[in-house]
Amino acid sequence: MAQTTVKTIQNYVGGEWIDAKTTKTEAVYNPATGEEIARVPISTQEDVDLAVQAGAEAFETWKEVAIPRRARILFKYQQLLVEHWDELAKLITIENGKNYTEAHGEVLRGIECVEFAAGAPTLTMGSQLPSIATGLESGVYRYPIGVVGGITPFNFPMMVPCWMFPLAIVTGNTFVLKPSERTPLLANRLAELFEEAGLPKGVLNVVHGAHDVVNGLLDHKDVKAISFVGSQPVAEYVYKRGTNNLKRVQALAGAKNHSIILGDANLENAAVQVLNAAFGSAGERCMACSVVAIEESVADEFIELLLEKTNELTIGNGLDEGVFLGPVIRDQHKEKTLKYIETGVEEGARLLRDGRNDEKAKDKGYFVGPTIFDEVTSEMKIWQDEIFAPVLSITRVKNLEEAVDLSNQSRFANGACIFTKDGGSVRQFRETIDAGMLGVNIGVPAPMAFFPFSGYKDSFYGDLHANGTDGVEFYTRKKVVTARWV
Ligand code: NAD
Q: Record's NCBIfam families (predicted)?
């Protein structure tokens, strides 16, 4: 029988591709086929130390490089990412499972982060007051902070790392990235292309692995800041341990996003948007729609439309033409999702569409069909927990006020959407809803790179969010100079 050997990927440290100092590896699977496509090393403290040391050494020269010169490398990087767009998108689909069109969109989101970061000369300008007292002036100057650690989730292998390292690096820091061990392949490609763009050795380092690498970064005295994106319990842990070690930490966490549909909404649009937001990327988005709160008067009509459209979706390998819904990330995640569906039934919610019955759900890829519950209440676990899979809960409400009150009971506050034609309702929603990213008649209101990614409550721990001017603030420190010329 032919023996297939799967490659163990390498770490990228000080501009060199090196084997991790470990024999422990984990399988990386293509979730659409269940096939093992690579092995990822579970790196150790020693690997972290090497990468941080490389970053600390590189920092001494990188921080001195003029900002327009740093930005020029980013411009070149942007060009390379554009040239390799299709290849990167394909890799995302292979390791993550989302369909190729969505993967293409994710590459765009990553490129936009690089484009934003390339504006560093303007973004990092200070400000001056020529006269704060007679003959006395003051000014603010911005500087990098040192080695930054980045820890990222599986669901956006390109976009989320790109929220972090381009901006951190262009502002003069060096970076150690710990990608998700479930989707580690794209990170290496991102590093290769950055090197090709002219990034000096040691400015970006990639260490693969799991908890030990995360803890290594959180405890390392030479790591000055941590950017984290992932699930709520890990975000809380990272925030507490990192800040306990007196580091700056921004930790973006889980979500349970609500969409409110009012009686006057364009129901056709609402159904298309909710379908995309609930089942796109197999529900594995922190901005996925998980709960619909709909005014009773239009609930039946909306549900009929939504079911009709959902039944037309194609489930399958995201590389195949016309496929909308790919697999979830792992078989364990599929099992967990199926348990949630069972729980929803036991809790008394009405199962309108059962994704366990779709033909593809019997495949060896990790597929779960789109699942829709009606008559869900806030006491139910399927309402409370982030399921992170194509499972949607619907709850019927009397009016906007009831919908907002209900939504605000959630421990999370990432995104929320409203579907209506009424400006007053939009205003009331904006003023009263607990969520950091709001959508009006759209399903996934994920901000572009120029704006902060802005959740709160248990969706975010920290002060400064990822992206936008928050990102610039996070990755820089300031000096205020007060001077009298005598
Ligand atoms: P995860 O928390 O399992 O993993 C995230 C990172 O933390 C990975 O690099 C992983 O190796 C590491 N990690 C996991 N467990 C750890 C532990 N016990 N100790 C130390 N490190 C640990 O998250 P995931 O499943 O990869 O990603 C999905 C989650 O990310 C969802 O909850 C989603 O909502 C969230 N997310 C949030 C945002 C946002 O902007 N708020 C964006 C994307 C994803």
A: MMSDH
What is the token pair recorded at 84? Answer: 């390799």
Q: Which atom of ligand 1 is nearest to the CA of 329?
A: 25
Residue 6 to residue 8: CA distance in whole angstroms: 7
**Segment 330-356, tens digit of pLDDT:** 999 999 999 999 999 999 999 999 999
Averaged pLDDT score across all residues of the chain: 97
Query: Is 16 within any annotated ligand binding site?
Result: no
Helix crossing, 85-96 with 185-196: angle to 10°?
A: 160
Q: Can you tell me the mean pLDDT for 389-398?
A: 98
Q: How many angstroms does the Cα of residue 180 sit away from the middle of ligand 1?
A: 8
Q: Cα of 259 to ligand 1 centre, how many Å? A: 24
Q: H or E stretch including 440?
A: strand 437-440
Strand order in the sheet with 460-461: 16-18, 11-13, 204-206, 174-178, 147-151, 223-229, 248-252, 460-461
379 is in an annotated binding site: no
Q: Are 156 and 106 in contact (CB under 8 A)?
A: yes
CA of 197 to the centre of ligand 1 (A): 29
Cα–Cα nearest to 206, from 47, 38, 26:
47
Q: Is 253 in the pocket of ligand 1 (CB under 6 A)?
A: yes
The pTM for the full model equals: 0.98
Residues known to be catalytic = 286
Q: According to the annotation, is 346 in a ligand binding site?
A: no
The mean pLDDT of 222-228, rounded to a whole number, is 99
* Average pLDDT, integer, range 368-397: 98
| Rounded Cα gap, residues 475 and 385, in angstroms | 32
Cβ(252) – ligand 1 distance below 6 Å = yes
- 371 vs 83: CA distance, rounded Å: 38
Closest protein CA for atom 36 of ligand 1: 230
Decide if pLDDT at 1 tops 50. Answer: no
* In the predicted structure, residue 318 carries a pLDDT above the cut 90: yes
